Amino acid sequence: MEIDHYLQFRDNALVSAIDHEKRPSDAAMFVHTQFRAMILNAQFPCPGARTTFSQGSYRFGLFDRIGTKDSAECLGSSLRRFIEERKSMNTMYTAFVSCYREPIPMSHLEFAHALWTMLQELHVTDLSEWDPSKSSDPESPDFAFSYGGLSFFIAGMHSGSPRFARKFGWPTLVFNAHEQFAFLRNEGIFEKFRDLVRKRDTSLQGHVNPVSTDHGMMSEAIQYTGKIDSNEWKCPFHHKKGE
What we know:
This protein is of the alpha+beta class. It is built from six helices and seven strands, in the order E-E-H-H-E-H-E-H-E-E-E-H-H. Strand 1 and strand 2 (about 15) form a beta hairpin.
């Protein structure tokens, strides 16, 4: 359902962010309820995510199948709308959450393949220039995925994830604008924020996620799926201009 592709949580209900009179599908409301409960759980490691969901400054979409051209086209349309709308949200804590009906369950390797296929499909159809503040080379320590001229840190979640904070029943990609991390750095609180997330993640899981790296040390691409299976892993993403 196209109506499910761009939704917001408003007045304690999930509604269309385009036409508040239109009702989302039962499936979209069900998946959103599960995801919202996970993020707002007191033990969820990221306080920024909890703030975003508490104040409702996120948009949510349920799409058909992760990794397909059709889903990428629908996601691109929703992301462009989100990029434009977030300018008027009056907060740095924003996110676009895209969940997918299929396939479930998924292994980590299946999810990783689908995630990078999805991002490649998004990139191929992106008419905007790459965010100049970030590198388009996935091997660069300054890499971040860009769409619509805005760079994002992407948190992937799926049923087969070994990390509690990345385990969710439906394949999910959460798009977090890098501007909010720049804001934290400018405020001088990024390191405190980062350390708190790692401390809470360790308390939840028993150990910090091995792919958690400090900004500028190595490419953030390894963090998108939440797990890397091999030290020889190489990001499959390619910039369409070959940069």
